[in-house]
Please model this.
Amino acid sequence: MKKALIVGTGLGGLTTALRLSTLGYDVEMVEKYHQPGGRLNQLKADGFTFDIGPTFFSMSYEFKEFAQFCGIDMPFKFIEMNPLYSVNFAGSTRWYTIFKDLDKLAKEFGDVEPNFEEKMRKYLIKTGRLFHDTENRIIRRNFDSLLKFAAALASVPPRHAPLMLRSMWSEMNRHFSSYEVKVIFSLVAFFLGATPFDTPAVYSMLTYTEMQHDGYHNVEGGMYQIVEGLMREINKRGITVQYNTEIVDFREQGGQISALVDNNGKQYTADVYVINADAAWFRGKVLRRQAFSNDKLDKMKWTLAPFTMYLGVKGNIEGLHHHNYFLGNNFKEYSSKVFKNSISLDKPYYYVNVSSKTTPQSAPNGHENIFILCPVPDLRYKPTWNDSEWLATNIMKDISSRVGYNIEANLVSKTVLNPQHWMQMFNLYKGSGLGLAHDLNQIGYFRPHNNDEKFGNVFYVGASTLPGTGLPMAVISSRLATEKIQKKYGS
Ligand SMILES: Cc1cc2nc3c(=O)[nH]c(=O)nc-3n(C[C@H](O)[C@H](O)[C@H](O)COP(=O)(O)OP(=O)(O)OC[C@H]3O[C@@H](n4cnc5c(N)ncnc54)[C@H](O)[C@@H]3O)c2cc1C
Model:
């Protein structure tokens, strides 16, 4: 029986563990944090339960494929979201509700965007074609060579080529005229950790995935049920997980890794090593590769960092929905400058999730749990965060005035995580929340590969390797890594 050691219990690590165990591998896992899940994690404080990162997911069929592969029932229950989310612009009491039904959506935007329904229908047809023309050709595939990647790109119908050359924002400009519509339907760029101004228009296909294809899903009982469900299966199969254990070094022999070494000097041996730590960071920090030195990593394009707050608040806040976006009126200026820390965060843009609206057990009776995510510059551009309290208070005051409820006065629990915390907790490079960005020179064959360049028995899974970031991508990533391992080592 071949043995696999998996470094990291993020979604990519957990799903790879179960896939390899299904193929007959003896699997062992090590994890730096004190509990499993990676960014898909949970915080319990003062009687409140919070999902600390992801709050919804798309492409549910990837989870179904995974469960089928492993011969297990779906390890959690999910609920399709409709409406998807609500959006408020500063200075206005109006909320735009994003329904999946086009006729309802048209009522939301009819007065700001003439012929909205017709324009949106056209936009969805175009982005839908793009999605279906690339999903199996590019997104869900391994690429062993540049030639194969180039051939895959060449197989995409040429009508989509111009979308590689312009930004998502300029694509919005071609379809819509109102500020509100352009801003709201380009928020999907932030789900990739970037802004619509620096995200290629090819990713406008995400609007099709959210609005029409498979949509977004909440998880019954909270997002951490995904991890709990996977852990039940991991435990059933006798896969051991060693927590508070960070891999910091390696031993090599004959072009292979012969052992990985943890922070206490303990050595772990296996036939195959699967790295769920960030694929670029691990190569630089642990394997000490020149191509991934700090200087080189700094020059790569990383996604925005998270500034997150977890608030327990007394009362039921009528003005808040389950998924809310609070935006300003200077979108272009703000989003083009926030990444490099060249605009003040005194009027920040942020997302608010109140899971107690649909999962009452996540807050004590008569209370709400409020999770706030504000995308901010990573530690390359803003290395110090001694203004965290200022920013947290600023955001609380802003929400309070916009929903007409004094959050600070009713606060019973508060936890704030800035990019330094995120970096320390999960080894996220410079606190970047979603890993490497998805510019055309950082996807497909150009993304850090899921097999190591030097060591034949080392593979990678997760956000900074193929295919990219987000929960369904982590599940696809586990399939792609498993395919490579199976090809080389068999079942
Ligand atoms: C604030 C936030 C909100 C998000 N919202 C969404 C959302 O709504 N929907 C969505 O689909 N996606 C969302 N994402 C993205 C999603 O969370 C990630 O893409 C996904 O969880 C990444 O999974 P992964 O497999 O790459 O592993 P990770 O979650 O990165 O896990 C890797 C694990 O490896 C461990 N590790 C690292 N280095 C070592 C080492 N040297 N030794 C031992 N262990 C190590 C880490 O501690 C970690 O547990 C969000 C992310 C963030 C940060």
About this structure: The first strand starts at residue 3 and ends at 7. Residues 7-13, 30-33, 38-40, 53-57, 246-247, 276-277, 306, 308, 373, 426-427, 433-434, 462-463, 469-471, 474 surround flavin-adenine dinucleotide (CB under 6 Å). Residues 3-46+63-73+222-299+437-489 form a domain with the FAD/NAD(P)-binding domain fold (CATH 3.50.50.60).
